[in-house]
Every structure is written in C-alpha cells, then in structure tokens.
Amino acid sequence: SVHDFTVKDIDGKDVALSKFKGRALLIVNVASQCGLTTANYTELSHLYEKYKTQGFEILAFPCNQFGAQEPGSNPQIKQFACTRFKAEFPIFDKVDVNGPNTAPIYKFLKSSAGGFLGDLVKWNFEKFLVDKTGKVVERYPPTTSPFQIEKDIQKLLAA
Fold first, then answer.
1. Cα-based torsion angle of the residue sequence 7, 8, 10, 16 in order, rounded to the nearest 10 degrees
2. Cα separations (Å) of 77 from 8, 16, 62, 106, 151?
3. pLDDT tens digits for range 69-108
4. Whole-model pTM above 0.90?
5. 92 bridge partner residues
C-alpha cells in the first residue's frame, strides 16, 4: 500500500506515508511553469480547504521531467506554491516519475493503475486517487481538472 513508503518532504525531512492511514489521498506530480499550473493549483487548494477536515489529503510531488517546467530548487518551489497559490497541502521533494530514477512511490502508483501510455506518467498534474487503506483506486490524466474528481473524492470520504 501507499502507506508502506517513506518519502522526503520539500524541506528534506523523512515523512512516513503511514501517517495518512484512514485518509483519502490525491497524489499529484506538480510543476510551477506549466500551462496547467494555475488551474490545477487553484482547484487543488479549493478542494483541500473544502475536504481536509473530512479526512482528505493532497500529496504534491514536484517533477521537472515534462518540458523542464519545474526547474527551481525546493525552496523556490515551496515559495511559489505557498505564496502564489496559498497551497497548504504537503509538498514533497522533487522526484522523477518516469525513467531509471523513478521514485519508489511512483513505481508503486504506476504499477497499481496503468495509464494511457502504459505505465508512463504522461505530463504534469497526472493524479492518483488513493483510498483510506492506501490502495490506488483511480488514475486521471493531466487534462482532468481537480474539480472533475470531486465526486470520486466524496465517495471515498463517505466509505
């Protein structure tokens, strides 16, 4: 399950994902300079505000593999997300989501939910919905807006 992994947060501290047991998760690879950035960060922040007290968490993993649209350092990424978009959800260390250096959490996510390009994450803001037990239940392409996922989030929170 997702809960078996430990990842580094944007400040370089280890975070055991088991701390999110019992919460529905949306795991997203984010970028600061993508055409999808503004809409995604805005909608993600809105959903987080609306559902965080009901057991919903968003885990954002910066990634620079798509059009080099996340070139900044961790402090720059954190400043961007938290200042420009008031992102309050956890943001983690920059990772690779494809290729030989794929982060273990992304290997797991992709093997649990094949995507349109086989197992490859297609672009920035691909989304994985994870239930309270840490099981991947759905995968959405980058073009699916966070608001389009809201019904699925509500279902998981009600379960």
1. 60
2. 14, 21, 8, 20, 29
3. 999 999 999 999 888 888 899 999 999 999 999 999 999 9
4. yes
5. 9
Structure tokens that stand for 5 in this block: 């992994």
Nearest to 97, CA basis, from 144, 139, 134:
139
State the maximum Cα–Cα separation within the chain, in Å, rounded to a whole number: 39
* CA–CA distances in Å: residue 93 to residues 8, 27, 46, 132: 5, 13, 23, 23
Tell me the backbone φ, ψ of residue 115, rounded to 5 degrees: -110, -165
Q: Is 154 exposed, middle or buried (0-12, 13-18, 19+ CB in 10 A)?
A: middle
Catalytic residue among 17, 34, 105, 109: 34
For the chain, give the percent of residues with pLDDT over 70: 97
In the annotation, is 63 catalytic?
no
* Four-residue CA torsion sign, 118, 120, 125, 131: positive
